Amino acid sequence: MRQILLAGGIALALLACSPRAEQAGAPAAGSSVSALMQARKLAEPDVTAALKTYTPTGVHDEYLMFSSGGHSGQVLVVGLPSMRLLKVIAVFTPEPWQGYGYGDQTDALLASGNRNGQTLAWADTHHPALSETAGDYDGKFLFIGDKANARLAVIDLKDFVTKQIVASNLIESDHGAAFVTPNTDYVIEPTQYPAPLGGGYVPIEEYNEKYRGAVLFWKFDRSKGKLDPAAAFAIEVPPYGQDLADAGKLASSGFAFVNSFNTERAWGGTMEGNPPLESGASQNDTDFLHVIDWKKAEAAVAAGKAETINGMRVLRLPVAIAEGVLHFIPEPKSPHGVDVTPDGKDIVVSGKLDTHATIYSFEKVKALIDQKKYVGSDPYGVPILPFEEAIRAQVEIGLGPLHTQFDDQGNAYTSLFLESKVAKWNVAEARVLEKIPAHYNVGHIAAAEGDTVSPDGRFLVMIDKWALDRFAGVGPLLPQNMQLVDIASAPMQLLYDMPVPIGEPHYAQIIKADKLAPIDIYTPVGFNPVTDTKDPEAVEAEQERIERRADGVHVYMTAVRSHFRPDIVRVKEGENVHIHLTNVEQAKDATHGFAIGSHNVNVSIEPGEHANITFVAKRSGVFPMYCTEFCSALHLEMAGYLLVEPN
Ligand code: K7E
Ligand code: CUA
Q1: pLDDT (tens digit, 9 = 90+) per residue, 351-378?
Q2: Which of 6, 144, 323, 514 would staple 300 via disulfide (CB 3.0–4.6 Å)?
Q3: In angstroms, how far is CA 113 from the centroid of its own chain?
Q4: Cα-to-centroid distance, 459 and ligand 1 (Å)
Q5: Cα distance between residue 251 and residue 179, in whole Å
C-alpha cells in the first residue's frame, strides 16, 4: 500500500478508502482528505510530504540516523522517514533514565575518559562514524568524537551501549573525529586547536615554533570491539587549525584527507593589540588540504621511526615529510568539509569564504606526488602540490558552502550556510542542478548511506543551525532543526521538520535499518553491558543474600516483576554498601529501575542485565528503595527499605 502511494505520488482517493482508514474507524463525512486539507490549510505538497513520512503504529522505519548530540555529549538515534527519536545513547555524559553515571560500571566508564585527574562531565560530540567493511556501513559499531576534550568513544550496535572512551594525552581538542578507514582499521582524529604536543605550558608567543597539531590514527580491534591505544599512532602537523577529515576509498584507499584553516597561524589577542582570530585567520586566499598516505605512515611507525610523546607514538614532521607521508595542496579559503566521492576518485572541498566546491582528482594528486612535482613548501618543510594541476573542476555553488554528501546517481549535495540552501550538483559534469531552501543556516547534511561506496540516494537530512520561526516559542534558547528532504524526487522535496531540543547535532550518518541486528535481552542472565561479559557478581534467583565483609555490606539482589529480593537492607550508619543487582527476567522490554532516594543511586537494568552500585550510608534514617520503571500492574509495590541504624 505504502509503495503504491509513494510510487504513484498523491492518491487521495486511495487514501480515503484505504483499509487502514476504515480500520481506524470510518471517517466522518467532514473528515474526507479534501475536507481535512481545507480545515488544516494543507496544500497538495503538504499531503505528499505527509504520505512520504507518516509511519503507522507498529511500522518500523526504513533507515536509522545516528546524529551527534553536540554538547549534550550524547548520540541521538532517529528513524527515517518518520523522524521519530528512537534513542539517546549515553556516551560522555550522565544520563539518568539509563542509569548511566549512577552505578559502578558506568561511573568507571565515564571516569576512564577523565584527563589528568579532572572529572569531565560533559563533551561536545560532533561527528559520528559507523564502522565500515569494504567502504560500506556494516552496522556493527559507532564511533563519536568529543571536540572539547579530544576524546573518542566506541558504541557497540549489538546493544547500542557505549563500551569505551579513550583520550590521548597528546592533543587538547579535536574536530575531524571520528572518521574511519574503509575497513575500520583506524579511526581518524585530527586536532582542532594547536597546542604543545603532549601538554604543558609554552608561551603563546612561541606558537609558530612550539604549538602543533596532530592527526591521530586509533587502531580498532574488531574482535574485541575496542580501540587499542597501544597500537595507535599520530602524525605531527603544523599549527594550522586542522578540521574535518575523510578517508580515501576504492581508488584512493590508503590515503586520508584533512583540511585546515588558519594557515596564517593567528592566535587572537583582542586585548593585546592583535586582530581577533576570525580576521587574523582569514588573510590568506588559500589554506592547505593535507594529503596523508596512512599506509606509509603505518609502515614508518612499524619500522620504529616514531617518537613516543606522552604515551602516543608520533611521526614527527621531518620524518613524515622524509617518508612521503604528508603533502599539502592549496585549498580555497577557510574550508570546512572534505568529502571523498563514493568511487574514491574525487575529493570535494568547500571553502566557507569561497563560492565554489573544488573537486580534486585523486589520480592527478597521486601523479603529482609520485613525480614530486612541488611548487614549494610551507614554513615547516611540507611539500606543496600545484593547485591548478591537482583539481579537476570548480563548481560555482553559492554562498558559504560547507559539507557535501552523495547519492546513487552521481550527484553531490553541498550545504550553503550563508544562503540557507542545499545545492544539488552533478559531480562528473561539475554543474549545479537545483537548490532547496533550508530553515535556516544549514551546517552538515547527511544522506542515506551517504558516506559509503554505494549511497542510496533516497533521503537527505539538513542539520540547521538556526530554527528562528519554525517552532512555537519556548524562550530564548530554541531547539535545533533537522529537516528531512526527499532527494529521489525531482525537484527535491522538503518533507519534515524535527526539532532537536537536547544539543546541537553537527553531523549524522544514516544506515539502512536492516543492516542492524540489535539484541532484545541480555544473555546469559547477569550480563554487564559495560564490560561486555557476565558480571562476576551476577546473582542467580534463589542465591540472593546479604554478606558482611571487611569492605562493607554486600547485598546480592534480584529484580523480577514485581519485587526486589531482598527488599529490606539493614546497615549501620557509616557503612559501605555494595549492591549487586541482577534483573533475572528474560522477557523483551522487561526493564526495571532501582533507586534509593537521597543517595544518588539510580540504575536501569534491562532484561538479563546486572549492575553494581557502591555508596556510603552516611546518614541514619529510613530510605525507600523502589523501581523507577512502570513495569507491571504492581509496579508501585516493587519497593523496599534501606534501614540505616544510628551508631
Ligand atoms: Cu560543520 Cu563539527 Cu563538522 Cu559543526 S561541524 S557545522
Ligand atoms: Cu520493576 Cu517497576
Answers
A1: 888 899 999 999 999 999 999 999 999 9
A2: 323
A3: 16
A4: 20
A5: 18
